[in-house]
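Q: I'm teaching a short session on how sequence maps to structure, and I want students to see two examples side by side rather than one. Could you give me a first protein with its sequence written out and its structure tokens following it? Keep the formatting plain so it prints cleanly on a handout.
A: Of course. Example one:
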Amino acid sequence: MEAGAGLKTLPDAQGFFGNYGGSFVPEVLNSILKEITDAYMELKDDRDFQTELKSLYRDYVGRPSPVFQASRLSSSLGGAQIYLKREDLNHTGAHKINHCLGEALLAKKMGKKKVIAETGAGQHGVALATAAALLGLECDIYMGEVDIAKEHPNVVRMKILGANVIPVKSGLKTLKEAVDEAFMGYLKDPVNQLYAIGSVVGPHPFPMMVRDFQKIVGEEAREQFMEKTGKLPDNLIACVGGGSNAMGLFTAFLDDKNVDIYGVEPAGIGFKDGEHACTLTLGTPGMIHGFKCYVLQDDKGEPKPVYSVASGLDYPGVGPQHSYLKDIGRVKYECINDKEAIDAFFTLSRVEGIIPALESAHAVAYAIKLAPKLSRDKTILINLSGRGDKDVDYIVENYGKNYGI
């Protein structure tokens, strides 16, 4: 299929983006997922629901988030002008609040009593706990023990907000295992709970639903960038784990053939199994957590171990729409390693006074590599998907001495 052709009509009625997506779940969940799909399809066009959501975005989250020209960073690189979509300035500190409010509102409208979810870096967990507190819902958050140790500030925030944080002790004790156990927890009572998936992954309708709640990022950015510069950005960059912040930015620009789009995956510490999470770069089509996508998998179709310094990126699968966009060539997927991401974390902090999340630092790192290759009349727009408060203790303890701390 030609890049951009039919993108606005995806997914199809079965939840497929080309060959990816769909719903492959236990029989007991088919009727539950149909109920969620039907409720969402009704509410997405409901004026009262959209008015309430937009009001919360404005008055509670603080939207629109600004677009900021990183002039000092751009000048230091001597190439393209770099701009940041400041999702780090949202209430709760990341883009995750955009879809968490949507999912929590949906749960409330459906009469659910509890929202349940996984979290890696903790930003989805904090955002969902926040939305649950606001709307009077119970909240269970599953989080791997490794990530609990790395992201302690976010664990404390979730508990303050009233969420029940459930440590996951199986496997590598990170994001994939958190998804596994959250899914099992959901199966215990799918009638009274809504699994509020934290990215554009999972069975239909979640990749579509989370994308739709996140697309406000790109819609705002498009209008803001035109107002600032009189034209569209030449390049978009966003980090990709599951891929929600990236789809949030990319969706508004997919049909603009003159806009080059880059998704940035974590190369970790190497390209051996368990050293990276470059799913789109090194994975193959397969199935994980009830949907088809690119997967880092072994010969038996089992997910391989993955790793990233950024807890929100170490997932062996990826959103089905990203898988489709890779295949048709509309988005280029690149890899950034831990050292490059940490260097970018400190560079943005010290040159622009903005401490990014380690996930977002991967996108910044790729912009730092790309900008000098482009002329000064070209532009780059990065989705700065989150702030780095959650990462500060971990960074200082493990890398501080290398950066004079």
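Q: Perfect. Now a second example for contrast.
A: Example two:
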Amino acid sequence: MCENFQRIGAFKFRGAANAVFSLSDAAAARGVATHSSGNHAAALALAARLRGIPAHTVMPEDTVAIKVESVRRYGGRVVFCAPNHDARVATLAEVVAETGAEEIHPFADARVIAGQGTAALELIREVGALDALVAPISGGGLLAGSAIAATGLCPGIAIFGAEPEGADDAARSFASGQLEKNSRVDTICDGLRADLGAPNFAILKGLGTQILPVSDAEVLAALRLVYERLKIVIEPSCAAPLAAIRRHPGHFRGRRVGVILSGGNVDLAAIGRIWAGAV
């Protein structure tokens, strides 16, 4: 499923649109607000513009420039914060208090989860029954929504989340049985740096999801393979599922596998420097 062709270049528009257009007129009039490393912020800005309401987005100071520009292009207000989860939450609380806007959480929101699940719904309707489904995991909105849709349509389907080793809170959460946090994040997958949401963890745990770790080097190799073979632009976070399949082939051999390519909002100059060994 090529969500890099989706509006705003990522699957996030599905959940943002569902959340924004489900608001009452009174709630919508106050505007919407969120925190995001990029794609959800742009999606919310576009959905808000389509409904004719303000959008306020809290973004880490180290957000990829192309994603900040995307938010502004769609008319969203950007408020920067320190690049950590606590700063994002605290700054968003200040913005909501200041504006009265409705908070649309990037992944721990039932409206968002439901919207994201339409990616798997459309994939299965198009290609038929699957034995396994793989998607990236960070906050868990895409994987949780897709897991609900996929297991409803394909009983017995195996659900896998691809996660960078430098932001492995989901892997640790599934290992311990309780929600874990990242004290330090170190990965080129800028869209997979958020901590797994509590409702998302509960959904995925209940559906028997397995988390597959991948290294940044494996992500870059998968990214290059997609560029060279499929001739499409994806971002590092999007390459994680293919990296997971290549690293853990035993989970997929002999199975009909669906892969959700989550988005294509990549800083090509930065990727070029990484491949050249300059970063």
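Q: What should students look for in example two?
A: Point them to this: Residues 86 and 92 are 10 Å apart (CA to CA). Also worth mentioning: Strands lie at 32-35, 55-60, 77-81, 102-103, 132-136, 158-164, 210-214, 257-259.
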